[in-house]
Design a protein that fits this description.
Blueprint (H helix, E strand, L loop, with lengths): L8 E4 L2 H20 L10 E5 L4 H12 L4 E5 L10 H6 L5 E5 L13 H17 L6 E5 L11 H4 L3 E5 L9 E5 L28 H40 L4 E3 L12 E6 L6 H6 L22 H5 L4 H4 L2 E5 L6 H22 L2
Parallel strand pairs: 2-3, 2-4, 4-5, 5-6
Antiparallel strand pairs: 1-7, 6-7, 8-9, 9-10
Length: 355
């Protein structure tokens, strides 16, 4: 599915563990590479974007509090919704050991320039080696992209890639791609035990889940182009139906950035008007279940999504945001039903607010 080799895969409990494992490895590798050098370069430095999943952001913040690593969170461009390659490279320091950039954002669907970034860092690493500076490892969290677009590790040129089963109709298990683990690319275990997964991730493997992940990957490998075409068709129909139902002036698409590619399944939009916060609209829906941002951040209350704010979406627009995703089985009839439900929810809220 990824264009890698069987020995490049280590199974994990999910994306969170895989992402933490990469950060742990990069810090360990930094210290190993600096051992024996007269001028210690202090603590490891990691560069990432301001819109990453919490399983990247929170470990980095924790390491910072403990004084074990420092991190730079590069803001995305309000023009493109992307972390621009030049901005990421500008954040690199002599003690940088890892750059982690998600392949596609889970809220806006914007696809990040990971392949270009890898190429530039590869060239930079050649110069750094001559100066005895630590190698910069490159990681991408591909959770959102797999099953919705082409993912090829040779094209991407990354050292690590995170795989999350339930994002492509597999079971709730994950895996980590590592380019020749332990030889070409370092990999340090976070756990120690019975030696499973070549001791990179010990603990008895969850064999039924792994088999399910393999089956889901096989389906993606055979059908991803058909899946992508279907989801894009239904998503575009959803956006056209929202505009037709509410009027162009009342719908703001938060995931449309000129010149940027985006996932085929994601629609992030706001229905403009006072009292139409995303959470309130959803509470008045009868059949539609959706999210106002990332599903894992549902405890954040009515505060606007930090991802949308960092993309330059005004707070009054961002607080009305809804994120709808279509899937392999979503039909145009489903879209009609969902939009009708949104229309009645908004009418109800506006009726309640009328003097």
């Amino acid at each position: 599915m990824l264009g890698g080799r069987p020995e490049d895969i280590v199974f994990t409990s999910g994306g969170t563990e895989a992402n933490n494992m990469v950060i742990h490895t990069a810090c360990r590798h930094f210290h190993d590479s600096q051992r024996g050098l007269g001028d210690s370069r202090g603590i490891p430095h990691i560069v990432t974007s301001s819109v990453e999943h919490d399983s990247i952001r929170l470990p980095l913040e924790q390491l910072g509090r403990e004084g074990l690593a420092e991190a730079t969170f590069v803001p995305v461009s309000p023009r493109s919704g992307q972390a621009e390659v030049d901005d990421v490279l500008a954040a690199i320091q002599p003690n940088t050991c890892l750059v982690s950039l998600m392949l596609a954002n889970n809220e806006t669907g914007v696809i990040m320039p990971v392949a270009e970034l890898s190429q530039r860092i590869c060239a930079l690493n050649r110069r750094r080696a001559a100066e005895a500076l630590p190698r910069i490892l490159v990681h991408t969290d591909a959770a959102q992209m797999i099953g919705k677009g082409r993912v090829d590790v040779q094209e991407l040129g990354v050292d690590y890639l995170t795989i999350v089963g339930h994002k492509f109709h597999g079971p709730r298990i994950g895996a980590l791609y590592i380019r020749s683990p332990g030889t070409t690319t370092p990999l340090h275990p976070m756990l120690f035990g019975g030696g499973q997964e070549r001791s990179f991730r010990p603990g008895t493997e969850n064999t039924p889940m792994i088999a399910g992940l393999g089956q889901a990957a096989e389906l993606v490998n055979k059908n991803w182009e058909a899946y992508e075409a279907h989801m894009r068709d239904v998503r575009d129909y959803l956006e056209a139906t929202l505009e037709a139902s509410f009027g162009k002036q009342r719908i703001c698409f938060n995931s449309h950035f000129k010149g940027s590619k985006r996932l085929c399944n994601t629609c992030n939009f706001s229905i403009l008007g006072s009292g139409l916060q995303g959470r309130r609209v959803l509470a008045h829906c009868k059949v539609l279940l959706a999210s106002v941002g990332a599903a894992c951040h549902s405890e954040k209350g009515d505060r606007p999504s930090p991802v949308l704010l960092s993309c330059g979406i005004p707070p009054e627009v961002a607080q009305n945001a809804l994120r709808l995703s279509v899937g392999r089985g979503t039909t145009r009839a489903d879209v009609d039903r969902a939009v009708q439900d949104l229309v009645q929810a908004v009418q109800e809220l506006e009726r309640d607010q009328a003097p």
